[in-house]
Amino acid sequence: MEKKANKTSWREKIHEIIYEADTPEGKLFDVILLIIIIASILLVMLESVESIDFKYHDYLNIGEWIITIFFSIEYILRIISIKKPLKYVFSFYGIIDLLSTIPMYLTFILVGSHSLVALRALRLLRVFRILKLARYTGASEKLTLAMRASKAKISVFLFFIVIVCIILGTVMYMVEGQENGFTNIPKSIYWAIVTLTTVGFGDIAPQTPLGQLIASVIMILGYAVIAIPTGIVSSELTKSTLNEDVNTQSCPNCLKEKHKDNAIYCYNCGSVLNP
Question: How much is the pTM?
Answer without folding.
Answer: 0.55
